[in-house]
Amino acid sequence: MLIALLPGDGIGPEVIAQTRRVLEALSIDSLDFEEALVGGAAYKATGHPLPPETLDLAKRADAILFGAVGDPDCDALERHLRPEQAILGLRKELGLFANLRPAKLFPELADASALRPEVASQIDMVIVRELNGDVYFGEKGMRTTADGKREGYDIMSYNEDEVRRIARVGFETAMARGKKLCSVDKANVLETSQLWRDVVIETAKEYPDVALSHMYVDNAAMQLVRNPGQFDVIVTGNLFGDILSDQASMCAGSIGMLPSASLDNAKKGLYEPIHGSAPDIAGQGKANPLATILSAAMMLRYSLDHAQEASRVEAAVARALAAGARSPDLGGSMSTQQMGEAVLEAL
Ligand code: NAI
Ligand code: MG
């Protein structure tokens, strides 16, 4: 099986290098790695953030492990040349419509959470966020109203097929965990949300074993801080999911700890840490590679049928933390490479 490694820019190459070592240490016979440029690194070498050969590799591969993009040297470029277009382009081109973000607090890191340890320790959930629709992809523009004022607009819409396929991912994810699904919307004001809720309720008939609930997004934001332990799986749209998943990540400690998967209808996926390219610490060996290593574990489980190795990697991360491995974001002083070595040793 072929893994596409797309390190990107900033701390991306640093965290991918340690993750590759961990994957190689598993000695899985059938794994091949191929690396390609993406984001700012690709723009500087080829003039495009997602060059055709990178997209081609991503299409050929069984799974993609992505670092991060967001080189500030590219800030002044037109929108279509900016590094972030590479990740949006990959999601769209590969039909990766479901974003899974587990948020769980390693007990060793209870002090790192923004919440009180006794509240934070309850967190063990997955947010399933729709990734290809909603207000991000609707018609957008800038116009001048009759009285000469500038007006920006972004259309929010979902059709029922888009809702149904993400709802199914939500239910399937719940089936594999605690069998509780909370659908988050704003059905008291938005038509999009009314359709969302109707379709989720229809889909629930296929999953009689899952306990379904509904919550308005503003209440969900509050509940995530008040009592995060009540959630098992949340399914929600692109905009609400973007915000809630970042919020949930802070409940679970450092941004350097959290993995994610972006999946299509089959088994292909793109796996990446939830953080960006962290230009403020890039090139200094300060980045925490654990989010990327945990993303690789998700890749082994969902796309490569190596659930046992996935669990080995996760257990090794827990053991490394228990043994005191701490990068600066976790209050320690270990370098990116030392963190990688701590995981290798635990493995
Ligand atoms: P960021 O996630 O890159 O950094 C936020 C803060 O967290 C920084 O202080 C950074 O040093 C710290 N941080 C992030 N990852 C860390 C790690 N592994 N270990 C230790 N500390 C870590 O978000 P920011 O600063 O908003 O964005 C920087 C660039 O990254 C922007 O150009 C943004 O567009 C891009 N970005 C890219 C993403 C992607 O590639 N999927 C996702 C989010 C942002
Ligand atoms: Mg975000």
Task: Write structural notes for this entry.
The protein has helices at 12-25, 40-46, 52-60, 84-93, 117-120, 160-175, 191-204, 217-226, 238-251, 290-302, 307-322, 336-346, and strands at residues 2-8, 32-35, 63-68, 98-104, 124-130, 140-144, 150-154, 180-185, 211-216, 233-236, 259-263, 269-273. It is an alpha/beta fold and 347 residues long. Strands 2-1-3-12-11-4-5-10-8-9 form a ten-stranded mixed sheet, with helices on both faces. Helix 11 packs across helix 12. The two termini are 22 Å apart. The model has no long low-confidence stretch (mean pLDDT 95). The structure holds 1,4-dihydronicotinamide adenine dinucleotide (NAI) and magnesium ion. Magnesium ion binds next to helix 9. Belongs to the isocitrate and isopropylmalate dehydrogenases family. LeuB type 1 subfamily. Its cofactor is Mg(2+); Mn(2+). Homodimer.
Explain the layout of strands and helices:
Elements: E1 2-8, H1 12-25, E2 32-35, H2 40-46, H3 52-60, E3 63-68, H4 84-93, E4 98-104, H5 117-120, E5 124-130, E6 140-144, E7 150-154, H6 160-175, E8 180-185, H7 191-204, E9 211-216, H8 217-226, E10 233-236, H9 238-251, E11 259-263, E12 269-273, H10 290-302, H11 307-322, H12 336-346
Parallel strand pairs: 1-2, 1-3, 3-12, 5-10, 8-9, 8-10
Antiparallel strand pairs: 4-5, 4-11, 6-7, 11-12
Helix pairs in contact: 1-10, 1-12, 6-7, 8-9, 10-11, 11-12
The structure holds 1,4-dihydronicotinamide adenine dinucleotide (NAI) and magnesium ion.
Shape: globular
Largest sheet: 10 strands, mixed
* Adjacency order of strands in the biggest sheet: 2-1-3-12-11-4-5-10-8-9
Present as ligands are: 1,4-dihydronicotinamide adenine dinucleotide, magnesium ion
The total tally of domains equals: 2
Q: How big a fraction of the residues is strand?
A: 15-25%
Kindly report how far apart the N and C termini lie. Answer: 22 Å
- Which blocks of ≥5 consecutive residues have pLDDT under 50? none
How many beta-strand runs? Answer: 12
The CATH fourth-level homologous superfamily of the largest domain: Isopropylmalate Dehydrogenase
Q: What is the helical fraction, as a range of percent?
A: 25-40%
Radius of gyration in whole Å, from Cα?
Answer: 20 Å
CATH class of the largest domain: Alpha Beta
User: Helical region count?
Assistant: 12
Mean pLDDT figure: 95
> Topology as H/E string?
EHEHHEHEHEEEHEHEHEHEEHHH
CATH topology (level 3) name of the largest domain: Isopropylmalate Dehydrogenase
Query: Which structural category do the helix and sheet elements fall into?
Result: alpha/beta
Organism: Sphingorhabdus contaminans
Subcellular location: Cytoplasm
Subunit structure: Homodimer.
Cofactor: Mg(2+); Mn(2+)
